[in-house]
Specification:
The structure holds 2 protein chains of 2 kinds. By secondary structure, chain A is mainly α. Chain A is 46% helix and 5% strand. In chain A, the strands form 2 sheets. A two-stranded antiparallel sheet of chain A has the order 1-2. In chain A, helix 2 packs across helix 5 and helix 6 packs across helix 7. Chain B is mainly alpha-helical. In chain B, helix 22 crosses helix 25, helix 26 packs across helix 37 and helix 32 packs across helix 38. Chain B is globular, with a radius of gyration of 36 Å. The chains are: A mainly alpha, B mainly alpha. At the A-B interface, helix 1, helix 2, helix 6 and helix 7 of A face helix 19, helix 20, helix 22, helix 23 and helix 25 of B.
Chain lengths: 220, 898
């Protein structure tokens, strides 16, 4: 049953514009027609999470009991505070987010509308992918390194106590090999990273070939 | 074909004719009655099973004949061919026996032919896909079927009222509703038969197919309700009967599903305890599923739903519990039975149509029905899709709707149901039979024939056959968790929320209860995919290895696959290096021309890469037990080997690639660094090192001679992973062994025990030349561009690892060696039969750039040096003499060769 959050409403800002930037009037009208009650609903939830404060801190997420069993819980919560996702900066974490930021994060999960033109769809998908990429790329250097990938896999598998870390590692290694075999042509094409010692080498660079995956909530 | 058919057909008939005399004859003499008879003919005793076997045999032979020509089967669906064959056979039977025989009996159909097909489809149903689309499937199955049944029935009744149906057809509204209910259901057998050959995308397939399976409950209820209403007579139907009818819809469908789930539970639980009696595992699967079917049938619940749910529910646990062999057995038996049943159904459908005594023709009714079922199906699909699209994340577009409307095939279920009608209660039965036959034939033959061109013409998204990749699996899991988490955060209990809950519950209780402990432990989807990929890689490696070594000519087995870069996978990766290995061997051949060498290499390759049959298996011929799974063990061993190899290669790549590369292709090094991707070489700047060059080389040389065997063995072991770098790795390993460097902690895989050298190796003089050969090889293979590509990422990984482990010194070579490789490469090339294969590949422009001209490259070396101070400081601390030693040693060899 395809029923991810139909957040058709939420404003989608172009990357780079600040949190306060607004969408064009037409777009907003288009979206807001569907949305106001959803935004209200989200606002209620936001208040519930924050305990009637204007902002949410990381600790507030501890109050969501259903989240506890999620193996990649920490990564997901982190994504809510990631400046890249909030479009507030190239890296770093925000201490707290307000409702607008909350909506920004939620807007990553908007479904693809039938009415969208292909360009918008493409943009939307890219945003979703970017969100995922940022989650993997924990040091926000624009690359997912093997170490980072291993972390993700370890967390993914942490739900199963019988799988050792070692296996998680080798799975990450295997996945990396696979990814490398797809990405290698593009890796050579990346513009040179100049200035200072570059930290671990990129293996899945952003802007490389499409990751072998379906975009975020598109899998109905 | 006709010959075969005739022969087979005549056999039973002739047999039947011949029965009389032989059975009579022994008795005629009248002596000791049964006594000793040399020859007795007992056709009647075996007739029934014999005929069944013959029919199945005939159907299978027909299948073989159809598939002799690829052209025919690609154009015409098998179901059409079978129906046509059935028609022909029916005609022959009719002509020979003067009466129609061998009909599709509803009893046979429902009790024996249908269950295997449904079980097969339920068991192998992609459950994730099914549940993801459950909403759409249920809508189409329930609302769609009801809609089709009522609209068709009422429209036909209207047609009759309008006088377009001949007055001979005595039927009221209820009769038409009954007919509508049986004719409206999309048939799983027909859909499966046609759609399996069309290969539309998975979502479309699962929606149409899922609908055809789930609508059975609705069909059964409607049919039964209408049937009983007809039998009661419309005057006697009370209002409460309508309510009962609606209630029975729920009872039948939910009851059927519940029966299926109960049996699925039982089945899973039973297979948990079959460890010592593996042999009955496949049987259990079939027995319990069949029991589910019969139980549901007995309680007049939806039997199809029961078996579907049983198959769907038990699969996960059963697959985890039963042995590998049993899994294969279950799979093949199921497929065989299903395809057998399907074949027989279609053939019998054709045969049954010939029997003119059963049907009566009315053009108005037939044409009207045909039109209405097509029209209302299309209308229903469009309306429902419109509603569904309001909720679906991925809307179904117009093309999908066309295919869904057109794919609503009717089949044997409708036919069997119409045959079941009671002629005394439904006077128009013969007309209905005729209409059903026409509808079934029309949908299966006409629509079946045209759906493929239609799909092509509409450019419907086809299903892509790609192997599962590890990344895909990982990302999908991440998606699931993210979506579930977002729903949690938002406090919205949607699909993902419930799926997540279910998975938790399953993991916590169900799996623990229903799975063997050993199976439960390692049960994880990601791990499964990884495991499968590993096995596949191992197998393909073994294949490759065998191929490479057995070919005497210059064969590049993997070359064609290199053409598309996008197609690369882990396997291809291995294959690439397989080609490298292949070239190596050619080099070896030209230099040493030694068959012995090849043998030795083969020996080590097999030793290192293959499963070692260490134990002898006890010969067991018990009927009740199969000896322990050799195959499984073998798999495991291959898997472990492969794992080890991979880890080893990871461990080693982090040290080695860099130097191979920088030495041979300084120009590339510069280029890479510019990319900012592979910055390895720049991190190893340590020019003052080169003073120790000679000494270090000497040291390593002695080591080398001691460890020669080992270097050789590890070389062969790893050939599959990297063709280029094995010498370096070998020494690297030596070093690592010697000093237990910190790098081991990164991938602490157990070392593979080096195989003992072959006798030839011990004695033969060329043994001493090995290390120099190895360098030779490594220099040669680097020229192959695909390997270069591979190197690119190897390198990146290597530098990645460099954080945790001592990197090798890089800079000295770069500063000292620049002209060497350039000179070295040129004279070498003509020595070997193969030319640089580079031009034959197509590469993305980025790669083409990598193979830039040499003049450019030399210009880049200074540039690179400039950057080194920038990068170098970081790794100075990591520098270890061991790593340096390896370096020198290689250089030494290199110059020695020159």
């Amino acid at each position: 049953m395809p029923s991810a959050w139909p957040l058709t409403c939420l404003s989608k800002r172009t990357p780079g514009s600040g949190p306060g930037a607004s969408v064009s009037g037409k777009e907003r009208a288009q979206r807001q027609a569907v949305s106001s009650d959803q935004i209200e609903q989200l606002h209620r939830r936001f208040k519930q999470l924050s305990g009637d404060q204007p902002t949410i801190r990381k600790e507030n997420f501890n109050n969501v009991p259903d989240l506890e069993l999620n193996p990649i819980r920490s990564k997901i919560v982190r994504a809510f505070f990631d400046n890249r996702n909030l479009r507030k900066g190239p890296s770093g974490l925000a201490d707290e987010i307000n409702f607008e930021d909350f909506l920004t994060i939620m807007s990553y999960f908007q479904p693809i509308d039938i009415a969208m033109d292909p360009e918008q769809v493409e943009l939307c998908r890219k945003e979703k992918l970017r969100f995922l990429f940022h989650m993997y790329d924990s040091d926000s250097d624009g690359r997912i390194t093997l170490e980072e990938y291993r972390n993700v896999v370890e967390e993914l598998l942490s739900g199963n106590p019988h799988i050792e870390k070692e296996s998680a590692r080798s799975i990450a290694d295997g996945a990396m090999m696979e990814a490398a075999s797809v990405c290698v042509g593009h890796m050579a094409d990346l513009p040179r990273c100049c200035g200072g010692p570059v930290r671990p080498v990129a293996v899945i660079p952003w802007g490389g070939p499409e990751l072998p995956c379906a975009p975020l909530p598109l899998t109905a | 074909m006709l010959h075969v058919a005739l022969l087979l057909l005549r056999l039973p008939l002739v047999g039947a004719g011949a029965t009389e005399e032989p059975t009579q004859e022994p008795r005629a003499p009248g002596d000791p009655p049964p006594g000793l008879a040399l020859f007795r003919w007992q056709w009647h005793e075996v007739e029934a099973p014999y005929l069944v076997a013959l029919w199945i045999l005939l159907a299978s032979l027909a299948k073989i004949v159809f598939h002799l020509s690829r052209k025919v089967t690609s154009l015409v669906p098998e179901s059409c061919l079978l129906i046509l064959l059935g028609l022909v056979l029916g005609g022959i039977v009719l002509a020979v026996a003067k009466k129609a025989e061998y009909q599709l009996e509803p009893g046979t159909f429902f009790l024996f032919l249908l269950p295997p097909i449904v079980l097969d489809s339920g068991y192998f149903m992609p459950s994730r896909l099914f549940f993801d689309n459950l909403g759409a499937i249920l809508t189409y199955a329930v609302v769609g079927t009801l809609w089709n049944a009522f609209t068709t029935g009422i429209a036909l009744w209207g047609l009759q009222q309008a006088g377009l149906v001949a007055p001979r057809v005595q039927a009221g509204l209820l009769d038409f509703l009954l007919f509508g209910s049986l004719i409206s259901a999309v048939d799983p057998v027909a859909v499966l038969a046609v759609f399996e050959e069309v290969h539309v995308n998975e979502t479309l397939f699962i929606i149409v197919f899922g609908e055809s399976l789930l609508n059975d409950a609705v069909t059964v209820v409607l049919y039964k309700v209408c049937n009983s209403f007809v039998e009661m007579g419309s005057a006697n139907v009370q209002a409460s009967d309508y309510l009962k009818g609606i209630a029975s819809l729920f009872v039948v469908s939910l009851g059927g599903a519940a029966v299926g789930l109960v049996f699925a539970f039982l089945l899973a639980l039973t297979t948990r305890f079959t460890k010592r009696v593996r042999i009955i595992e496949p049987l259990l699967v079939f027995l319990l599923a069949y029991a589910a079917y019969l139980t549901a049938e007995m309680a007049s619940l939806s039997a199809i739903l029961a078996v579907t749910m049983c198959g769907l529910g038990c699969k996960k646990y059963v697959e985890a519990n039963i042995s590998h062999k049993s899994r294969t057995a279950v799979k093949y038996t199921m497929k065989t039975l299903a395809s057998c049943a399907e074949t027989v159904i279609f053939m019998l459908l054709g045969i049954s149509a010939v029997d003119s005594s059963k049907w009566a023709w009315d053009s108005g009714l037939v044409l009207g029905t045909l039109f209405y079922i097509l029209f209302f199906r299309a209308l229903g699909v469009v309306l429902q899709t419109w509603v569904l699209n309001q909720f679906r994340l991925v809307p179904l577009d117009k093309i999908d709707q066309v295919v869904m409307s057109y794919g609503g095939l009717r089949g044997a279920v409708a036919f069997a149901l119409v045959i079941l009608l009671d002629r005394t209660k439904v006077p128009a039965k013969d007309y209905f039979v005729a209409t059903t036959i026409v509808v079934v034939f029309f949908t299966v033959i006409v629509q079946g024939l045209t759906i493929k061109p239609l799909v092509k013409w509409l450019k419907v998204k086809r299903s892509e056959h790609h192997k599962p990749t590890l990344n895909q699996e990982l990302h999908e899991h991440t998606f699931d968790h993210i979506l579930a988490a977002v729903e949690d955060v938002v406090g919205h209990h949607g699909y993902h929320y419930w799926r997540d809950r279910w998975e938790q519950f399953d993991k916590k209780y169900l799996s623990q209860l229903l799975m063997r402990r050993s199976a439960y432990r390692i049960r994880d989807q990601i791990w499964d995919v990884y495991y499968r990929l590993n096995i596949r890689d191992a197998i393909s490696f073994v294949d490759q290895g065998g191929h490479v070594l057995s070919s005497t000519g210059l064969t590049l087995p993997s070359m064609p696959s290199r053409n598309s870069v996008a197609e690369t996978s882990v396997t291809n990766l291995l294959r690439e290096s397989g080609s490298g290995a292949c070239l190596d061997l050619q080099v070896i051949d030209t230099v040493r021309s030694g068959r012995d060498r090849e043998d030795a290499v083969m020996h080590h390759l097999l030793c290192g890469g293959l499963y070692k049959p260490r134990r002898r298996y006890k010969a067991s011929c018990s009927r009740h037990f199969i000896s322990e799974d050799a195959r499984e063990r073998q798999d495991k061993e291959v898997f472990q080997q492969n794992m080890k190899r991979r880890l080893e290669s990871f461990k080693s790549t982090k040290h080695n690639i860099c130097f191979t590369k920088s030495k041979l292709r300084p120009r590339k090094a510069g280029h890479r660094k510019k990319d900012g991707v592979a910055n390895t070489e720049t991190t190893y700047g340590k020019p003052p090192r080169d003073l120790g060059f000679q000494d270090a080389a000497a040291v390593v040389l002695t080591m080398e001679s001691e460890e020669e065997e080992e270097s050789d063995s590890s070389e062969t072991e790893k050939e599959d992973d990297e063709g280029i770098i094995f010498v370096a790795r070998a020494t690297n390993e030596v070093l690592q062994e010697g000093k237990v460097s910190g790098s081991l902690e990164v991938c602490p895989s157990p070392r593979i025990i080096p195989p003992s050298p072959t006798c030839a190796e011990k004695e033969l003089p060329w043994k001493s030349g090995q290390r120099d050969l190895a360098v030779y090889v490594s220099s040669e293979t680097t020229k192959i561009v695909p390997v270069d590509m591979q190197k690119g990422w190897n390198q990146s990984i290597s530098s990645l690892e460099s954080l945790a482990s001592p990197p090798c010194t890089q800079a000295p070579t770069i500063t000292r060696l620049p002209p060497h490789p350039l000179v070295a490469e040129e004279p070498q090339t003509p020595l070997h039969q193969f030319s640089d294969p580079r031009p034959s590949f197509t590469f993305p422009p980025s790669l083409a750039k990598a193979g830039r001209s040499r003049s450019e490259s030399s210009a880049e070396i200074p540039q690179q040096q400039e950057l080194q101070p920038l990068m170098g400081h970081k790794d100075l601390t990591h520098l270890s003499p061991g790593a340096a030693n390896r370096r020198w040693h290689i250089q030494f060899n290199r110059s020695g060769q020159l």
